[in-house]
Amino acid sequence: MTPLIVIGLLAGLPIVLLILLRSNAAVVFLALCTGSVVQQFLGSDTAKIFNASISGNNSTTASGVQLALLLLPALLTAVFLRKSVNGAKMLFNIIPAVSTGVVTALLAVPLLSPGLRYSITGTAVWIGLEQFQAVIVGAAVFMSLLILWSSHLKGSFGKHKKH
After folding, report:
1. Residue 126: inside a domain, yes or no?
2. What is the average pLDDT value for the chain, to the nearest integer?
3. What pLDDT, on the 0 to 100 scale, is given for residue 70?
């Protein structure tokens, strides 16, 4: 599989999934961030335990375990929040969906098997993504939080209870 197709799949599949399931992409993005933290702190130990249980030392298995730890919280969140966005809100959901897809690629590529990772990181597309990763992640966090805050603030203004 060519490196550009892998990058396209890693970024495109989350976008398509979020749009088709109509899940709240801002919450899924934050679940992806949670998966990144889980993978960072538990990934190598979990991979060692998994490799010991199948009596082998396979880097592909370790990559698979770490990718599962990264992606599982976001995938479960997308499934549990299906149909949580509809109507005009779907337009505002596209920006965090694209952000989630791009950040998924940025987080997943370093966890791929060494051969595939090497072929991807040598492409001009990946070098461009890596060059702007701080801006991409910062904008994604800002947009997701802004959407979450605005969705909760709408209900609190103008509703004054009489005691």
Report:
1. yes
2. 84
3. 93
Report the C-alpha dihedral over residues 58, 60, 110, 46, rounded to 10 degrees: -60
What is the domain extent for residue 99?
3-152
CA 49 to chain centre: 25
| DSSP letter assigned to residue 8 | H
Which range among 61-70, 80-89, 147-156 shows the weakest confidence by mean pLDDT?
A: 147-156
Q: Which residues contact 46 (CB under 8 A, 6 or more apart)?
A: 65, 66, 69
Is the pLDDT score of 117 beyond 70?
Answer: yes
Any domain includes 163: no
> Which residue's entry shows tokens 């709240």?
24
Burial label, 75 (beta-carbon count in 10 A; 0-12, 13-18, 19+): middle
In a domain, 158, yes or no: no
